[in-house]
């Protein structure tokens, strides 16, 4: 048979679920890793730019500190101090050599700074300017040598008239010897007074400053640098801040204040768009590898997860004989297969439950009939009563009622009879429920129904039972026009009281039938009162004698004696009762191959004495002798041999040739002797015991599902599988195949 392929998509969905569970966290982790790498790289570049901007600002401040140091140098020059004096005598001391030295000194100061156009010392009061080109009148100097555009000269002169430690003026245009230059005037008072007599004036050349920044920054520096003073631009390098908005580009701008002056440096760096591309590529490669590994892992997990379900489904489809709904291409839907299996199991479970209910109902009816017939108490009887829902004990009071449907069966068809029976059952339920009385209604014969009424306390009197019977008969007559007879027995305590009450009700019924049968013949006399010796009790008496159960035998005889003495029978009737008991025991003696002639003669002798007590005593004596004789026959040697026989069967019951004949040959006994000995030891016949052992082993093998039914039959001792199946159905109620399915 071709292997059925399952195609309901369960494996595919399982695989996709595992894939999503594994891949989604991988993608999230990779995205977080890329984001963290990019953020870390941006932070690193920001720190790098910030350090570089601070380095540039410190470089510019170093130049300003250098210029500030020139003020301290010239404040200590002797010639500068002499020129501050009002006396002209000191002016004559500066000869040509000294003049050349001063000019050379100013030139060196400018050249040494690297950013100054020139340096000069201005004496506002004397209106003299000492420059690298000589001594000039201030008006002439700032007109012919270094002339300013606009208000530059006025601002410079006003600032020179005031005290300044280090003053940077706004950027201005200046024509030096006819050449236009952009300069930033720097003023330093050479004496600490409100109106200094000498002021060092330095002119920072913007072009020289730009050259300084170019050399200081290098080729991979910022894209722009702007210097402002109180918000006023001083000079720009590389396009300044304005480039930040060019073509939608983004920049990082750092603003740093000068530590020496009022200047403020704004340094701009480009913001990289492809920052951390190496880390991003590495993360993407790791993500691809992780996705591949995750997909393979998801496939492996899906296979492992689906394997138990797949095995179960293939067992259901191949071994259980299920005919699932097939799809195109030979595929079988898992869900349809499971649904079909569940439906089958539900149907089997329902059938099994129904069988259990039927069994319980049959067991209940059988137990009620046993109680009705008066079976004596067994060891497990109380447990059986509880299992079937009967809370009967020896302290419970009982009364048995009989409903006779014989007249109805003679007058109506079956359909009408069933309707009348249903009406009768409803009438009983109505009457019992109204009085809250517990009862059990069951069938004794087709035309005779029994009701066992039970109570924990004794009924008030017989009138209560009579009222129930009358009410039931009246309800039946009112609803269907017929009135079956309802008879009742005496109220008795204990389980045997059920039987006693039943036989009283049965006697009433027989008397009623006898009276009706003899009305036409004119016979109106009552039948003679008979002794109480039910056939069912006689059967139990015989069985207990045969097995030597003296206690139960004496209990039965005591009950018979007590019941008959309560009836106040005549001596002749009692003698007849005891004679019947003796006849029963003589039959048992004959069946056991025990000489009964002596017992019969002794009983006949005692019967002629007309002494009931002596007769009862002899009955007890004979019964005791029979039970002791049977017990003596079961001597230890015989029991030991029986145990050996039982152990041999237990060891070889799986052998196909196990039989009574083989046991007889093995133990050198006859076949009948082996059968009798085996039943005495086990309580059941040989073949029932052998079949029971084989069925228990077969059930264990079927539950393990290691072998087919035919092989199991051979293992437990059956050469023919059909014989095994019949035996299994007889003992278990179901076929071996069905039992195997129930164990799945």
TrEMBL record:
Any one GO molecular function term: DNA-binding transcription factor activity
Record-annotated membrane-spanning stretches: 15-35, 281-302
Record keyword Transcription present: yes
Swiss-Prot/TrEMBL keywords: Coiled coil, DNA-binding, Membrane, Transcription, Transcription regulation, Transmembrane, Transmembrane helix
Coiled-coil region: 335-362
PANTHER family: ARAC-FAMILY TRANSCRIPTIONAL REGULATOR, HTH-TYPE TRANSCRIPTIONAL ACTIVATOR RHAS
Name this protein carries in UniProt: Helix-turn-helix transcriptional regulator
Organism: Paenibacillus oceani
């Amino acid at each position: 048979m071709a292997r059925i392929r399952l195609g309901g998509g369960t494996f595919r969905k399982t695989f996709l679920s595992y894939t999503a569970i594994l891949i989604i966290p991988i993608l999230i982790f990779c995205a977080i890793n890329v984001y963290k790498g990019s953020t870390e790289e941006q932070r690193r570049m920001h720190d790098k730019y910030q350090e570089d901007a601070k380095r540039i600002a410190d470089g510019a401040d170093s130049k300003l500190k250098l210029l500030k140091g020139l003020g301290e140098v010239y404040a200590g020059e002797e010639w500068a101090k002499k020129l501050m004096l009002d006396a002209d005598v000191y002016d004559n001391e500066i000869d040509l050599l000294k003049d050349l030295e001063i000019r050379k000194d100013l030139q060196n100061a400018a050249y040494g700074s690297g950013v100054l156009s020139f340096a000069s010392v201005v004496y506002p009061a004397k209106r003299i300017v000492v420059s690298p080109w000589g001594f000039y009148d201030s008006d002439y100097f700032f007109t012919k040598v270094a002339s300013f555009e606009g208000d530059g000269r006025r601002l410079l002169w006003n600032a020179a008239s005031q005290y300044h430690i280090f003053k940077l003026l706004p950027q201005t245009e200046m024509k030096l010897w006819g050449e236009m230059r952009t300069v930033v005037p720097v003023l330093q008072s050479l004496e600490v007074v409100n109106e200094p007599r000498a002021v060092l004036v330095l002119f920072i050349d913007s072009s020289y400053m730009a050259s300084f920044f170019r050399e200081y920054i290098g080729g991979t520096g910022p894209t722009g640098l702007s210097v402002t003073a109180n918000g006023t631009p001083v000079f720009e390098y590389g396009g300044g801040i304005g480039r930040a908005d060019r073509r939608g580009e983004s920049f990082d701008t750092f603003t740093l204040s000068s530590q020496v002056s009022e200047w403020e440096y704004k340094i701009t760096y480009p913001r990289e768009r492809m920052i951390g591309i190496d880390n991003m590529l590495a993360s993407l490669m790791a993500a691809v590898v992780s996705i591949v590994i995750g997909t393979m892992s998801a496939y492996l997990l899906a296979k492992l997860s689906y394997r138990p379900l797949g095995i179960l489904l293939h067992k259901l489809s191949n071994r259980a004989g299920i005919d699932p709904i097939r799809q195109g291409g030979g595929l079988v839907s898992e869900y349809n297969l499971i649904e079909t299996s569940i439906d089958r199991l539900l149907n089997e479970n329902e059938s099994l439950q129904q069988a259990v209910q039927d069994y319980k109902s049959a067991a209940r009816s059988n137990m009620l009939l046993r109680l009705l017939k008066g079976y004596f108490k067994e060891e497990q009887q109380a447990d059986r009563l509880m299992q079937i829902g009967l809370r009967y004990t020896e302290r419970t009071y009982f009364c048995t009622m009989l409903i006779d449907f014989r007249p109805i069966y003679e007058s109506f068809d079956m359909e009408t009879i069933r309707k009348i029976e249903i009406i009768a059952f409803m009438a009983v339920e109505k009457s019992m429920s109204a009085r809250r009385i517990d009862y059990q209604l069951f069938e004794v014969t087709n035309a005779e129904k029994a009701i066992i009424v039970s109570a924990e306390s004794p009924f008030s009197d017989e009138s209560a039972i009579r009222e129930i019977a009358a009410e039931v008969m009246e309800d039946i007559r009112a609803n269907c026009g017929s009135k079956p007879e309802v008879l009742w027995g005496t109220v008795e305590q204990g389980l045997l009281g059920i039987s006693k009450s039943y036989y009283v009700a049965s006697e009433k019924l027989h008397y009623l039938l006898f009276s009706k049968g003899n009305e036409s013949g004119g016979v109106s006399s009552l039948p003679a009162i008979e002794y109480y010796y039910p056939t069912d009790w006689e059967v139990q008496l015989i069985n207990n004698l045969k097995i030597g159960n003296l206690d139960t035998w004496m209990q039965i005889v005591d009950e018979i004696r007590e019941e008959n003495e309560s009836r106040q029978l005549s001596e002749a009737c009692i003698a007849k009762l005891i004679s019947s008991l003796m006849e029963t025991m003589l039959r048992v003696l004959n069946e056991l191959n025990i000489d009964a002639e002596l017992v019969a003669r002794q009983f006949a002798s005692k019967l002629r004495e007309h002494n009931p007590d002596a007769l009862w005593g002899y009955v007890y004596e004979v019964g005791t002798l029979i039970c002791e004789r049977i017990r003596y026959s079961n001597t230890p040697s015989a029991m030991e041999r029986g145990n050996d026989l039982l152990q041999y069967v237990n060891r070889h019951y799986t052998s196909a040739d196990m039989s009574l004949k083989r046991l007889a040959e093995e133990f050198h006994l006859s076949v009948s002797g082996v059968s009798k000995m085996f039943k005495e030891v086990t309580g059941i016949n040989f073949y029932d015991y052998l079949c029971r052992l084989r069925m228990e082993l077969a059930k264990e093998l079927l539950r393990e599902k290691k072998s087919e039914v035919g092989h199991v039959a051979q293992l437990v001792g059956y050469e023919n599988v059909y014989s095994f199946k019949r035996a299994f159905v007889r003992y278990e109620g179901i076929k071996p195949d069905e039992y195997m399915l129930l164990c799945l």
